[in-house]
Amino acid sequence: MEPISAAASVFGVIGFIGTVAAAASSFMRDFRSARKEIVAIKKELASLRAVLEILAEDFDDPANTSLHESVHERIVDAATNCSRVLHEIDDCIRGLHGSRISWVNSGKEEICNLQRKLEAEKSALSVTLDYVSV
User: Fold this and answer.
1) What is the pTM of this model?
2) 61: left (phi over 0), alpha (psi -120 to 50) or beta
3) At 127, which CATH number?
4) Which of 73, 21, 69 lies closest to 44 in space, CA to CA?
């Protein structure tokens, strides 16, 4: 797998984080009762962005050009999984806009589950980052 492919995956997720964060902020303004859950999502997004930005910097480091192909594959897989969860979060938030009943009935639980999934994916990327840093 090409390092460029891994870098492109990382940069793509970084870009989409901004979109999801903006949707989350808008949702939080409209649904004050969702503040706690949306703040947790936004913290996870910021943490994920930080990990991805460090990985992106590592791709620019000439010393890391010889990273094993399996590391690049792991990064692409983790970035793909993060992107999938981000899309689920974005779809959930956009689908709940304007429906307080949906938020109370299922949205809150769904957002909490997605936040945990995103945290797990970020953790996988963090482990890879630790490996790259060694």
Assistant:
1) 0.86
2) beta
3) 1.20.120
4) 21
